[in-house]
Amino acid sequence: MNIVTCIAPVNIAVIKYWGKRDENLILPLNDSVSATLSIKQMNAKTSVMASPNFTEDKIWLNGREETFHSQRLQNCLQEIRRRAKQRADGKDDGVSDWCVHVCSENNFPTAAGLASSAAGYACLVFALAQLYNVSGDISGIARQGSGSACRSLYGGFVRWHRGSASDGSDSIATQIVPHSHWPELRILVLVVSDKRKKVSSSSGMQNSVKTSELLKHRVSHCVPQRTEAVIKAIINKDFETFADITMKDSNQFHAVCLDTFPPNVYMNDTSHAIVNLIHEYNIASGKNKDLIASIRMEPHEPGLLKYLIHTEVGVGPQVLDEPHHHLLTDAGLPKVLV
Ligand code: 2P0
Predict the structure, then answer these.
(1) 105 falls within a domain
(2) Could you give the number of structural domains in the chain?
(3) Would you tell me how many other CB atoms lie within 10 Å of the CB of residue 303?
(4) Residue 327 binned pLDDT confidence (cut-offs 50, 70, 90)
(5) 296 is a domain residue
(6) Which of 8, 17, 58, 225 is the most buried (most CB within 10 A)?
(7) Does 26 contact ligand 1 (Cβ within 6 A)?
(8) Is there an atom of ligand 1 within 6 Å of 202 CB?
(9) Does ligand 1 lie within 6 Å of residue 252's CB atom?
(10) pLDDT of 288-323, one tens digit each?
(11) Structure confidence at residue 111 as a pLDDT band (50, 70, 90)
């Protein structure tokens, strides 16, 4: 079969990636650590098809045709094709010379801070690797689509190593523990806006690298210690330490955005109210009183929270074998267009 369909998960960073040392290869300034979220609630789904009848590479995202000429897409496809050609068995059946059609969709809002590009590129690279029979680490290829995508290639908790090689060969993701390690952990995603971010992550972090003194301090003095400490907390299932580092690293990331000139503000009043609620909840839950009554907070007006997703840590990308899952017809065209 020259068609493959896969689904891939979203990930949420507990130690944040913010800032590149190489824009083209997408090499980060610091290591980051994430939890892979269950594909049951949120996922990207991608079909890739190769055929000698296709005359050009084509891509449809969420039902609309998009250009294949983006540098990031090209880098991923070229790298997968290069790896397919140098496969150990030496037998290249010619498939890697055929053009591909790609059709991809997310079941959650794009660019609302939910790492749609991470799930999307992880899914694309994983599906292409199946199509072209490429084995070995492919996180370094997904990284070239979108940095955080390399972390979505593994389930459980994942570390993206910044690496030090100038060609990026050691800037890859590895699994810290599988999803089964900490099964009682639950994750709530509270969406306060489903609009596209005003400043994309790529240009936001570029500006932070140029202007933020705090980012320099973070990279050299905070992230290395925090990374080791959070990994230890994950391995030991030490929730208090884990939560403490996660909250502090998130705050510092947003502080770096505010220290960027001009500043980037990604949180709104509702986000800050939720942060306060969590701290109030933690204080109240330590007391032997009625929990709701002892939370010192006034109710907010309805409608500020767009929606809430209750999920857990999950597995990495999966192949969907049944033909009805394919997003492309036998002729290689999307089954659904908008
Ligand atoms: C993260 N973010 O670690 C951080 C925290 C956003 C805040 O990774 O330019 O879409 O494609 O490498 O991966 C978002 O950045 O940026 C991101 P590119 P990406 O999850």
Answers:
(1) yes
(2) 1
(3) 7
(4) very high
(5) no
(6) 8
(7) yes
(8) yes
(9) no
(10) 889 888 898 899 999 999 889 999 999 999 999 999
(11) very low
